[in-house]
Amino acid sequence: MQLQINNDRLRHLDAVRGIAAVAVVYVHCACLVSVDHVMLNLLGHAPVIFFFLLSGFVLTKSLDAHQKMSAKIIAQFYIKRFFRLYPAVVFSLSLAFILAQFYISPQKIDGLNVPFGGVIDKAIRVNNAGKFIVELAFLKMRLIPPLWTIKTEFIGSAVLPILFLIIKRWPKLSMPMVFFFSILLGRGDLIGLPRLDFFSPYYFILPFLLGMLVYIYKPDANLISPVGSYWSIFYVTLLVVFMINKELGNVNTVDVFLCLVLTGVLYVLIPCNMPRLKLLLKSPILQFLGSISYGIYLIHVPILHFIWSVLAKAFTNILFLQNHVIITILLFSITMILSIPLAFFIYKYIEKPFNLLGQKCAACLK
């Protein structure tokens, strides 16, 4: 019997999205203190890849809800996707623009090494309306650098219906397509193409495709036993921990590895035949975290840079502590405390109303 994917069964995946967003916040806090390549690869790249996998899965589910694909359905899909993503971006950039006027340049703190301090300096330079409009257009991402992933979301959302139509018409092309995009991402030099940059909007088309294929080839609810599910997650965790290390110099190859491994994780998590884990993921706290995860992801960087600037100005000695873990935890704790209420505001007063507006605009399309 094939798994019936309904809204109730998918609720636990919302919590995973929230956990991934928190992991990204922690990495960005740590990067202002020191750089750990293992952590950057594991907690930095992996959550972003999982975001794209989930998008590929959920968006394909949305497209497949229609009996027949048409130009109208695809146009409606694009409209709803725009209203889902962009209004929250505008709000977050506006707040980031205001906060950036109060940032302190790391270069002004003598003797302090700030690995990613240049990111703060770039945000400080966005000091007029013209530069702000450039940020709104995604031409540069200095106020909120993680917005490159939202740009990728737009491109992935644009490409996904086309890929879905191709796979539905010619199912046998799915494997060659995965092979092509894996080579394009990891070893483009083998086919005479330059290596893709991590921040390229085309870098992560592969996880969108893989997420779509996970939906198309939905796991059988009875196929993956609870014991098998636990062992699968345990095995994948060990594999990732021991494979992702600074000796793997080609970050593109690492990301292909993460794409393929995390696809297996998603495949296991869809039925989630792990009662205790599923109960935990459906807990009110994690469900709330999942609902505001987009807002947390958007708003945490300007909040973090503002907090760092306050510490640099009023409590400089804290930033000179030898224990980097303490500084990271302090930045992380304050960033989360401030980001959560703002993310809830974004969710309630921007995401939900504009989602509804997007649905109404899409319905008006003749």
Structure description:
Helix content is 72%, strand content 0%. With 366 residues, the chain is mostly helical. The chain has one domain (7-363). Helix 6 (147-169) packs across helix 8, helix 7 packs antiparallel against helix 8 and helix 9 (226-243) runs antiparallel to helix 10. The protein is globular and about 60 Å long.
Task: Tag the structure with descriptive keywords.
disordered N terminus, mainly alpha
SSE diagram, text form:
Elements: H1 7-31, H2 37-64, H3 71-100, H4 117-124, H5 129-136, H6 147-169, H7 174-186, H8 205-216, H9 226-243, H10 251-269, H11 275-281, H12 284-291, H13 293-314, H14 316-319, H15 324-363
Helix pairs in contact: 1-2, 1-12, 1-13, 1-15, 2-6, 2-8, 2-10, 3-6, 3-13, 3-15, 6-8, 7-8, 8-10, 9-10, 13-15
Brief digest:
The chain is built from 15 helices and no strands. It has 366 residues and is an all-alpha fold.
